[in-house]
Amino acid sequence: MRYIVTGGYGFIGSAVVRQLCAAGHEVFNLDSKTYAANPEAVAECEVQNVHACITNRQAVAALFKAARPDAVIHLAAETHVDRSIDGPSAFMKTNVDGTFSLLEAALAHWQATDEPDGFRFVHVSTDEVFGDLGPDDPPFDETTSHKPSSPYSASKAASDHLARAWQHTYGLPVVVTNCTNNFGPWQNGEKLIPTVIRKAVLGASIPIYGDGQNVRDWLYVEDHARGLIDACQAESGATLLFGARAERSNLDLVNSICALLDELRPKTTPYAEQIEFVADRKGHDRRYGVDPASAERAIGWSPRQSFEDALRQTVQWYLESLPADLKDSDDRLGLARA
């Protein structure tokens, strides 16, 4: 098959590209190469890379014309909540206007294709669009209403609504997916797990927002990528949620990483002694949890990796990837691995 992947230099996008290439598919990667891009993550893949922003309508239209895709997996987005609080404009431009640009190009392509029933536009979103959960609330499912809390999640909620509107109004075969927190190799260094590993190895304070009791469900990125590829076979109009049923508080997660570091790179004192609680994030959602039954029913998906095994593999990967001259400002811990 022929795929367009947007954001294929990113953390989740690169995992999708690697799996598609390993399966022998033809992949076109549309990526604007922002700070979060890491071309090394797909350096061994035979990919046709197009360096342009998804808001560039001319470039997007030209790509659809050249690629003639059977499916689009749309991952390109601004994703970091802290950055959205400091500068929301880029999130509105990329996540909202960029998704609109892609939907327009996909619609024109789909209307002109010889096999319209086989095309899929998989719009990849986040569980953060649903707001947060109380400690005893059931996890989010495909019927949960959108109630975003941050500029980031608001921009993603808007893009979800756009994708569904194009499916409802024009008939474009859209599948919307919402996932929980991902982790694994090649994640940008500003995210929680790479930050904890970097700070720990440097002997610096390991920061945790607030009291550390914010809860997230953690999904291994390779399992999520496999689900996104399978979602290209789902029924048009479907909403699929990807989660691992592996809820952990941030403090519990950080303590688990510190325990693995104590084992894999021991030093004279426990790494957990470096933990420091810092001022909480503005509007910090207390809990996310995802019920993945929709993906289990629709495409037979379930995680193959346990949280414990995947976390151990992830920590080992980062330790093997640390550059010799590691600095606290390094955002891409995997760069030295290539």
Question: Which properties best describe this structure?
Answer:
Rossmann fold; 338 residues; alpha/beta; 12 strands; 10 helices; single chain; disordered C terminus; seven-stranded parallel beta sheet
What is the CATH superfamily label of the domain at 2-183 and 218-247 and 283-306? NAD(P)-binding Rossmann-like Domain
> In what range is the share of β-strand residues?
15-25%
- Topology as H/E string? EHEEHEHHEHEEHEEHEEHEHH
Largest sheet: 7 strands, parallel
Spatial arrangement of strands, main beta sheet = 3-2-1-4-5-6-10
Radius of gyration (CA) equals 19 Å
Q: What distance separates the N and C termini? A: 28 Å
Task: Give the second-level CATH assignment, the architecture of the domain at 2-183 and 218-247 and 283-306.
Answer: 3-Layer(aba) Sandwich
> What is the count of DSSP helices, taking H or I runs of 4+ residues?
10
Shape: globular
- The count of β-strands is 12
Question: What is the class of the domain at 2-183 and 218-247 and 283-306 in the CATH system?
Answer: Alpha Beta
> In percent, how helical is the residue content?
25-40%
Enter the CATH topology name of the domain at 2-183 and 218-247 and 283-306.
Answer: Rossmann fold
Q: Which stretches are poorly predicted, pLDDT < 50 over at least 5 residues?
A: 332-338
Structural class: alpha/beta
Question: Mean pLDDT across all residues, rounded?
Answer: 94
